[in-house]
Input
Amino acid sequence: MKAAAADLGIDKIGVASADPFRELKQRLLRHRELGYESGFEEPDLDKRTEPALLFDDPQSIIAIAIAYPSKLQQAPKSEPGARRGILSRSAWGEDYHKVLRERLGRLEDWLRERVPDFRSESMVDTGALSDRAVAERAGIGWIGKNCAIITPEWGSWVYLGEMITNLPLPPDSPVTESCGECTACIDACPTDALVGPGQLNAQRCISFVTQTKGIVSDELMRKIGNRLYGCDTCQVVCPENRGKNWTHQPELQPDNEKAKPLLVPLLKMGNKKFKELYGASASAWRGRKPIQRNAVIALGNFKDPSAVPSLTAVLGDDPRYELRATAAWSLGRIGGPEATKALERALGGESDEAVVEAIKAALAAAGATSAAVPADGAGRAEREASRNE
Output
């Protein structure tokens, strides 16, 4: 099976026992008590840690890893008047859920040809089991301080999937490498969401925040920079990823204009166009609202006065209160007479209380901001964009 991995389009295969993940359950309970869950997880902790609840008489779990790219080749530049956002690497190329399910399907077919009574249950990301816990037990890699699986061969630029089976396969040994004394990821996390080695407060993780649909706090909007979906900072700074960029999986290669799109056109994009451009990407699962809201945030963080007319249109015309409130915040960040006039006009015609409060806060911010001095916004966001390339 392992020898056939490359022909099946799989970069690494490991085998784990199907025993309950008892230590993981205790960690998950503590995680829940502290309020660190994202809400996207399987809520039943027994299902997350006991394979026998998901599959009749499980004998082993096969874990797979597929490597993905970390760099854009000849990435387009973000410039004044043509500012760009960035999607995390997990949203480059075709939706990795689809790609991994197809690879797991190939592996299932390969095994079924050789074992007539073969049974399996495959899952990717949205399944009940913890992909990382299975991968760690199966010897795919170790769980880094950034909570990612780090493989000796591919770094942490890997997608994970697993297959519970009725095959009594010999389990692999866990990888003995570790992060050692390195704390680069913890130190670099923009929101201090990594509260300890291997401990993540998902509520503060920018990757999670960019996928929410509501109004984001002032603090977190400033930290988002120009990110439209996801965050790669804790992986970018990891020494184990230095120089690693994988281009051999064709479905996962990025389209530069989709991975680093112009921000202003995103504001006017309808559902049809969004599905056409991003429907095949992992970033589409929450719809266009979060990405459009994040584009509004990015324009505010760039503090580019040329964005004021587009943001004014969102503030005055967009039917979604979340985007109107966010547009007010961005206009306040940019400041200047034009932004201030737009906010004052909108205040008289706005009926939503949350938006009214956002406009008032933005007017106060605009009054304290000089559009001629970009402070920490444009420069920091631009540097973030450069790092993300």
